[in-house]
Design a protein that fits this description.
The protein has 538 residues and is mainly alpha-helical. The chain folds into 2 domains: 161 residues, no CATH class; 260 residues, no CATH class. It is built from 22 helices and 5 strands. A 3-stranded antiparallel sheet has the order 2-3-5. It has a two-stranded parallel ribbon with strand order 1-4. Strand 2 and strand 3 form a beta hairpin. Helix 13 runs antiparallel to helix 16. The protein is globular and about 85 Å long. It holds the Pfam family Acyl_transf_3. This is Nose resistant to fluoxetine protein 6-like. Keywords: Membrane, Transmembrane, Transmembrane helix.
């Protein structure tokens, strides 16, 4: 007995045939678009696939969409096309981008061997509540998801969208929650202690700038000279060591990032070779096998990311300089603002190129931005040796050792050549020495190169020796030695403050040693805490 097909079945068959014809006729047109959508959607799908909260049906539906995109299916493109985005006319107050509601509902995804629908589109027309709370005004964006998926998947899709990430960057609440979060990332769990070190180092810098500001504004200057002789005040004067702490952390993080990228490439290469050797036929994306990370691609990528992270706050502070007259006024503004404004009017472009520390103090734009320039310059120097350590450890370690010794010798040479103090000390009888150190040496990049190199060596140590067995005696020796060296580095200037002067030999020796020694102390602290060997102290 033959039962006549229902009208709905006939309609579905006609739509399926039309879709098949469209795929053949429009494939040359939609192929470039589909490939671009694949690059955006597939990484998101891969991350969502590891979410334990997703149901098997939802996960299977997402995989079908990914396969459909790869095969240039019209229905797969409709899923992405019906989603709302950042929208238009946001400046004029448009707060909604609901996407294609009817298009989403009309999507029918066929099974592999049948024309019966397997799942359909399901619109979700609001942002997650958590994201709504973090925005100053409500926004509504439509997102089309498979009918077998729960609304929780929307959170993943929105958090990965570029426009959402850009808006979240300017959310004070999001930034505050990140600062106080107690969640630990398993990938970088051994570096969690770095965040605490950064906080204390930032407070140390603020403390130093609070007490070592404009000397002309000091009250009871003679009393200040007596305070300087106190050992406790050496902590304030040595605030520059907190800056070298950041340079040491930079070395550690740079090596870890490069190591992670290169090792992932090696693992992927092995997987591709294995699948080719075993002739495994799966839905494995073979395009990834051709996307190896070469040095010519890795280096610009690392430099660009670092440059953007440093440049955005730097330009924000520079813009603040130009609106400062609208915020404050007074004799200090009248005396110094024209000088600061004139330098930036003429040399603002040096901030974009990270070379503002090439100019002397009286000509530089935003002298307090010397750290950003030095950080970028040091990254340019050490990135290739750091990559070499990952791929050829012996040659890379030799190069890093050479740069470390060169930086130490260069700093000692400048100290002798300019007859400068080794660091920021307060010596009224040798004021010229102190000024030479501040104006000629402190804001250069090369004197801090040794600290970054020590940080890179620390990153290598943490990555390859974190599981090495160290006896209790070895740990106590490490703590006592690092503690003693850091104590000497910080408080030895008390001797010079009480004496009122420092010899050239003392200045050269201290300048030669103190930065790498302080970097070694920071590395030991992070190594001990990050590997779980300092639970009594962390």
């Amino acid at each position: 007995m033959v039962r006549p097909a229902s009208p709905q079945t006939l309609i579905e068959r006609i739509q399926a045939n039309l879709s098949s014809e469209w795929n053949e006729d429009l494939e040359p047109v939609i192929e470039p678009l589909a490939r671009r959508l694949q690059k955006f959607f597939l990484p998101i799908a891969q991350e969502i696939a590891y979410d334990e909260t997703l149901s098997p049906g939802c996960l299977q539906s997402l995989m079908r969409i990914a396969v459909g995109l790869r095969n240039f299916r019209i229905w797969a493109l409709k899923f992405l096309d019906s989603n709302g985005g950042i929208g238009v006319n946001k400046v004029d107050g448009n707060a909604a981008s609901l996407g294609g509601y009817d298009e989403c509902l009309s999507i029918r995804v066929p099974q592999k061997d049948q024309l019966d629908q397997e799942f359909v589109g399901s619109p979700n027309a609001t942002w997650p509540i958590e994201l709504m709370e973090k925005l100053p005004i409500g926004m509504r964006v439509g997102i089309c998801i498979p009918s077998k998926c729960e609304n929780s998947i929307v959170t993943h899709l929105t958090q990965k969208d570029l426009s959402v990430r850009v808006m979240r960057c300017f959310s004070a609440r999001v930034s505050y929650l990140k600062l106080i979060t107690r969640k630990k990332s398993e990938e970088n769990r051994d570096l969690d202690c770095v965040h605490g070190i950064r906080v204390f180092s930032s407070l140390w810098i603020l403390l130093a700038h609070t007490y070592l500001g404009d000397v002309g504004l000091y009250d009871r200057g003679l009393h200040f000279l007596s305070v300087v002789r106190s050992p406790a005040f050496s902590i304030v004067v040595q605030g520059m060591l907190a800056v070298d702490t950041f340079f040491a952390i930079t070395g550690i993080v740079v090596y870890r990032k490069l190591y992670s990228a290169i090792v992932k490439e090696r693992i992927l290469d092995r997987v591709c070779k294995y699948k080719r050797k075993m002739s495994v036929v799966t839905d494995f994306n073979w395009d990834h096998c051709n996307e190896k990370i070469s040095v010519s691609k890795l280096v610009p990528m690392v430099l660009l990311r670092r440059g953007i992270r440093l440049l955005v706050p730097s330009l924000a502070v520079t813009c603040l300089l130009y609106i400062l007259p609208l915020i404050t006024s007074g004799p200090g503004m009248d005396a110094f603002y024209p000088y600061l404004r004139n330098n930036c009017d003429q040399r603002w472009w040096t901030l974009l190129l990270f070379i503002n520390n090439f100019w002397s103090f009286e000509f530089t734009c935003m002298n307090n931005q010397w750290y950003n320039a030095a950080d970028m310059q040091l990254l340019l120097i050490v990135i290739l040796p750091a990559i070499c350590i990952v791929r050829q450890p012996r040659q890379g370690l030799v190069a890093i050792a050479f740069f470390t010794i060169f930086s130490m010798a260069y700093t000692a040479f400048l100290t002798i050549y300019y007859n400068a103090a080794p660091t920021s000390v307060i010596l009224p009888r040798q004021t010229l020495k102190v000024l030479q150190s501040t104006l000629r040496i402190g804001d250069q990049a090369l004197p801090h190169l040794a600290t970054v190199c020590v940080g890179i060596l620390g990153g290598y140590l943490m990555e390859h020796r974190k599981d090495s067995k160290i006896s209790s005696l070895g740990m106590w020796t490490g703590w006592l030695l690092s503690g003693a060296l850091s104590f000497v580095v910080v408080f030895i200037i008390t001797i010079w403050h009480r004496r009122g002067e420092i010899s050239t030999a003392e200045a050269a020796a201290y300048a030669f040693l103190y930065r790498p020694l302080w970097g070694a102390f920071v590395v030991w602290l992070i190594f001990a805490c990050g590997t779980g060997r300092a639970r009594k102290y962390s």
